[in-house]
Amino acid sequence: MATAHNKANPGDIAKTVLMSGDPLRIKKIAEKYLDNPKLVNDVRNIYAYTGTYKGKEVTVMAHGMGIPSMGIYAYELFKFYDVDKIIRLGSCGAYSPDLNLLDIILVNDSYTESNFSYELNNERVNKVSSSTKLNNKLKESANNLGINIVEGNVMSTDCFDWYVKDINVLLDRLPKDLIAAEMESFALFYLANMFNKEASCLLTVVDSHYKKEELSAEDRESKLDKMSLIALESV
User: Fold this and answer.
1) In whole angstroms, what is the distance from residue 177 CA to residue 155 CA?
2) Is 207 a catalytic residue?
3) DSSP 50
4) d(C-alpha 49, C-alpha 213), whole Å
5) pLDDT tens by residue, 103-132
6) How many CB atoms lie under 10 A from the CB of residue 220?
7) Assigned domain for 192 exists
8) Domain containing 123 — which CATH number?
9) Which residues 6+ apart lie within 8 Å of 186 measured at CB?
C-alpha cells in the first residue's frame, strides 16, 4: 500500500533496502550500480529506486536526516512494504582518536538520549543492537573486497553534535565505548527489533572532533562508494 510518505505500490520495494540520508547519494548509487533502476518514490524528493545488482533485486532509498525521519521511513518499510532487511549507509563524526577520515565503521550497538522509544511504545530504551546475522554478511563482504572496517558502538544524536553548546559536557556523560556519532541508527535498529526484522549500519567517517578535520559537502556525496559496495555485495 502507498502511504502519505511513499507512493510505491505493493511489490515495488525489494525485500532488502539500502538507505542513506541524502537523496542525491541514493540517485548516484542507483545509476552507478543497479541494473534497470526504476524510480518508485519521489514524495518530498525522498527518492527510492528498485533494480537488480548481480541479478539480486534491491531497493535503494533515502531516509532524510535525524531519528524522526528515519523512524517514519523504516517503520513504513517494515510494516507496510514487508521489507526484511535494511542497511543504512551513513556518515559520522569520530569520537575516537584512532579513527581517520573515510574509515568505515560497522555498528554493533546504537546509544541515544532520544525519547523515540518512549513516545512510540511507552518504554525507556537507550541502546539497541544491530542484526548479528546481517553484520556477519557485511563483514564477509568487506573481507572479500579487501576493504578494512572497524566494528564499534555509536551515539545516535537528536542534534548535529558540532552545534551543541559544550561538546565536552556531552562526551563526559556518554558511555565511554562510543567511537562515533550519527543521527539515525537508533530508530532503525529499534524498529527492526520491534518488527522482528534485520537492520545494520555502515558509516564513513567524515569529520573528527579530535583531529579537527572534516570532508566538504561535495566529498560527502562522492567519496562514500566503498560502503555502498560492501552493502551491495552482501545482498
Assistant:
1) 10
2) yes
3) E
4) 33
5) 999 999 999 999 999 999 999 999 999 999
6) 17
7) yes
8) 3.40.50.1580
9) 67, 110, 111, 112, 114, 116, 128, 156
What are the tens digits of pLDDT across the range 84-98?
999 999 999 999 999
- What is the Cα–Cα distance from 55 to 235, expressed in whole angstroms? 10
Among 22, 103, 161, 207, the active-site one is 207
pLDDT band per the 50, 70, 90 thresholds, residue 214: confident
Which bin fits 122, alpha (ψ -120 to 50), beta or left (φ > 0)? left
Has this prediction a pTM greater than 0.85? yes
Minimal CA–CA distance to 118: which of 82, 155, 67, 78?
67
**pLDDT tens, residue by residue, 31-83:** 999 999 999 999 999 999 999 999 999 999 999 999 999 999 999 999 999 99
Q: Are 204 and 221 in contact (CB under 8 A)?
A: no
Going from the C-alpha of 107 to that of each of 24, 40, 97, 160, 181, the distances in angstroms are 23, 29, 17, 19, 11
> Which pLDDT belongs to residue 218?
73
Element (H, E) at 150: strand 150-156
pLDDT of residue 210: 78
Q: Tell me, yes or no, whether 11 lies in a domain.
A: no
Residue 3 lies in a domain: no
Question: Grid coordinates standing for 25?
Answer: 547519494
Query: How many domains are there within the chain?
Result: 1
